[in-house]
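Friendly challenge for the regulars: who can give me the C-alpha cells for this chain first? No prize, just bragging rights.
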Amino acid sequence: MQRSNVTRDDGAWTGLSLDVRDRHRPGLCVLSAGPRLLISQQSHPVLLADVDEHFQGVDFWRTDAYRSCIPPLRADVARALAGSPERWAHRFAEYLIGSSGSPLHEGRWLLSAQSPLRRRHGTDASHAEYWSSMLVEGHPDGCIDWFVHSSSWEVLPLRQMPEPGDSRVKAYRKQAREGTLPPVLLWWVSGLDCHLVLDGHARLAAAIAESVEPALLHLHRSAPRNDLAARIDDAVGFYERELARFAELRAVHGPAVPDGAAIAGPQLVRRLHELDAAAQLTWAWPLPGGQAQWRRIAREVTSGQDSLRS
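First reply, four minutes later:
Bragging rights claimed.
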C-alpha cells in the first residue's frame, strides 16, 4: 500500500490517501442481492439490510459477529498522539491494511479528519444532543430513515452502543475530559447512505456522555488513479479554455477586462482538491444465491423473527 498526504491549497493537512493493490476482496465486504444488502466479515454475517421499495429508508438487522479491525488503543499512545489527526491516520492505515477483517480492497481510499458530519452540526444543539441525534437507534434491528434524514449521513454502530456506565466508557470519559480521546473510525457506505462505526463505539459513547466533539477519521473510496488522471486533464483543459476566453474578451474590450487567472486559478485549485478527496460509490459484490440466499441468512440470524421484510 502506498500512502500520501492530502493537503489544501494553503498546505494544511486534510487526509491520507491510500493506494491499495493486490487485495481483490476485502475481509469486511458488502454483498448485494437486488435491494437487499449483506455486510459480511470473513464469511460471518454482520449486518443485513433491506432497502424500502420507495427509497424512504433501510430496515436492518445487526448481528453480534462484528470484530473491530483496530486493536485496543493504549492510554499512553492516546496521550502521545493527542491532537494530531495526521499521526492517528497513519497509525489507523497500518491497522486497516494489516487486518484481514477491514473493508480495504484494491483501489484508492481517503482517510480524512474532514468528515461531512461536522459541517452539519448546527450552533444551537450541544455536542451530546447533536451526536445522539445522528446515531441510528435500535438493536438488533432498526431503520435508517432516508425520508426524514435525507442525505444527513447518519451514524450506524456495527455493534450495540455501550451505556455511559460501561467500564470502557468510564475510562474514555476521562480521556475525553483531558482532550486525549482517540478518533472514532467511520466508514461511509453509499448503499446505506450512512456511516458505519468501524472502531470507537465506546469512545463515541464517552464523547456524547461528556458532551464534547468526538475526533473522527472518515474512510471512503476515492477516484482511482487512471480515472483521476483523466479528470485532472479535464480540469486543466477547463482552466486553459477559461484563460483563452478571457484573452478573447481582452482583445475586443481592452485591458480593462482581467486576464482571468484570478478567477480560473482558484477554481482549478478547488476542483483538483475535490477530485483527490471526493467520495466514490462503495463497491459491492453479488451475493451467491441472490435474494433466496439473503432470505435464508435472514431467517438464521433473526431466528425467524419478522423484523426484516421477507
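The mean pLDDT is 89. DSSP finds nine helices and 13 strands in the chain. Your move, everyone else.
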